């Protein structure tokens, strides 16, 4: 009898402790982006959970089994920024024996996706909450005319302030219990006028006078971001930060051109799936897509700049195949919900009618590669091809620019240099202009007026 009593006491004591040893919390990361907010809970073991929504006010509730409620509450304290587009506050506490409840107080109705990721690379078991607005404000949230910005929170890469640009303000932490009204983002004030793009002399001789009555849009994709840091240099530089810095400089230079405008697929340190980068470019009716990278290779002495286009028939070299696989693994590292089917992505993966897009991409790549050769050694003297998922827009000429190898200590140092980043951006712009001189964009029936 006494033994049974002891066993029961131990059992209830374990319940009261909430099975804290079932999984230990390693980290909490909250990553807001213009279209969504991501909450990542990282553990040393797998966890089970339940989730549901509540109204008045809008809340998302997550019940997690066997997790220390005090540790979670302490980790999420003061982590919500007042600038977060979806989350107003977050709190956690013990709900019942063995269960910790985390509550996200939301600013608007949302479409949540909750899923788990198995350990990969430096990450342990991750429980991910992706929170999307019911009505996306995609275009107004990201202004086309906004200059390149500097993010003081980025680590491992410089993002110095560019001329005529605004310093990105560091978001102030907002305590979980604070209910602060956050204004909606102002709509873009850009008024897009029709602008003639002069043709080259050779085109005038062949066709008389070639004119274009619209601006051209260049989608700039800063590789990696958020949960996906990309490659890491020997001295600690992170690819995701270097690519964002160069992308912002590239945007600023493009917008100085009278006939061009730029759009960033990401303008902060957050993760975007590869197919969503393509979707973003298509939503803004981009004429070109340029993905900026600074990759690593298995051999540290690899050096030089490269340009890649899509291939339907396999990679043009072993190195191109290796790099494509590494870039395509970004979704595994950054984390996507594989249960959500994307119709456009599925269509693109099986669409083999991209011959014209690839031909134009090779022309674009050649023009950019020629300009890059003026400021840096080329890794390959020709445009390489491989099955990069981020280049699979069927209707947009797309290239991936490897600015240099971050795995090479000498090139890592150059990639961290502000002047070199600006020269790299200038070379890419020079290539874009050369391409458009030779290949004037066709008129479109409808042009997006604001982003």
Could you explain the architecture of this structure?
The protein is α/β, with parallel strands linked by helices and 451 residues long. It contains eleven helices and 16 strands. The strands form four sheets. It has a six-stranded mixed beta sheet with strand order 12-11-13-16-14-15, sandwiched between helices. It has a four-stranded antiparallel beta sheet with strand order 1-2-9-8, with helices on one face. Strands 3-4-7-6 form a four-stranded antiparallel beta sheet. Helix 4 packs across helix 11 (418-438) and helix 9 (355-372) packs across helix 11 (418-438).
Report helical residue fraction: 25-40%
Average pLDDT number? 76
Strand content: 15-25%
What gyration radius follows from the Cα positions, in whole Å?
Answer: 24 Å
Q: How would you classify the helix and strand content by structural class? A: alpha/beta
Number of domains: 2
H-E string: HEEEEHEEEEEEHEHEHEEHHHHEEHH
- Unreliable spans are 137-212, 341-353, 445-451
Number of helical segments with 4 or more residues: 11
- Specify the CATH architecture of the largest domain: 3-Layer(aba) Sandwich
CATH class of the largest domain: Alpha Beta
Could you name the CATH topology of the largest domain?
A: Aminopeptidase
Largest sheet report: 6 strands, mixed
Strand order, main sheet: write it out. 12-11-13-16-14-15
**What is the global morphology?**
elongated
At the fourth level of CATH, the homologous superfamily of the largest domain is Zn-dependent exopeptidases
SS elements, strand count: 16
Distance between the termini: 74 Å
């Amino acid at each position: 009898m006494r033994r049974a009593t002891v066993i029961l006491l131990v059992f209830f004591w374990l319940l009261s402790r909430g099975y804290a040893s079932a999984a230990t919390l390693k980290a909490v990361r909250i990553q807001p982006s213009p279209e969504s907010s991501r909450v990542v809970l990282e553990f040393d073991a797998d966890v089970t959970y339940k989730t549901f929504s509540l109204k008045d006010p809008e809340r998302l509730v997550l019940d997690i089994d066997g997790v220390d409620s005090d540790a979670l509450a302490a980790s999420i304290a003061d982590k919500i920024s007042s600038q977060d587009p979806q989350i107003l506050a977050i709190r956690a506490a013990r709900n019942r024996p063995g269960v910790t409840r985390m509550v996200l107080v939301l600013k608007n109705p949302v479409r949540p996706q909750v899923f788990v990721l198995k350990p990969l690379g430096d990450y342990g078991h991750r429980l991910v909450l992706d929170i999307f607005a019911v009505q996306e404000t995609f275009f107004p949230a990201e202004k086309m005319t906004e200059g390149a910005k500097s993010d003081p929170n980025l680590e491992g890469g410089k993002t110095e302030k560019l001329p005529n640009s605004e310093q990105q303000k560091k978001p102030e932490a907002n305590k979980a219990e604070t209910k602060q009204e956050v204004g909606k983002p102002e709509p873009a004030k850009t008024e897009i006028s029709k602008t003639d793009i002069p043709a080259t002399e050779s085109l005038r001789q062949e066709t008389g006078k070639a004119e274009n009555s619209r601006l051209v849009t260049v989608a700039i994709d800063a590789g990696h971001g958020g949960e996906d840091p990309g490659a890491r240099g020997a001295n600690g530089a992170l690819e995701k930060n270097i690519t964002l810095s160069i992308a912002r400089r590239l945007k600023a230079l493009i917008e100085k051109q009278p006939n061009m405008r730029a759009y960033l697929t990401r303008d902060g340190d957050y993760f975007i799936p590869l197919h969503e980068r393509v979707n973003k470019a298509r939503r803004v009716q981009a004429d070109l897509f340029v993905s900026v990278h600074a990759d690593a290779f298995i051999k540290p002495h690899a050096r030089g700049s490269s340009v890649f286009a899509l291939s339907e028939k396999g990679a043009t070299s072993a190195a191109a195949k290796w790099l494509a696989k590494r870039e395509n693994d970004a979704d595994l590292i950054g984390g996507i919900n594989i249960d959500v089917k994307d119709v456009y992505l599925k269509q693109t993966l099986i669409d083999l009618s991209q011959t014209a897009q690839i031909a134009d991409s090779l022309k674009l790549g050649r023009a950019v590669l020629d300009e890059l050769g003026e400021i840096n050694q080329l890794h390959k003297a020709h445009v390489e091809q491989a099955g990069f998922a981020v280049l699979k827009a069927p209707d947009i000429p797309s290239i991936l620019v490897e600015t240099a190898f971050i795995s090479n200590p000498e090139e890592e140092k150059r990639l961290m240099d502000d002047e070199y980043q600006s020269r790299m951006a200038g070379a890419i712009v020079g290539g874009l202009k050369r391409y458009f001189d030779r290949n004037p964009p066709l008129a479109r029936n409808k042009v997006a007026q604001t982003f």
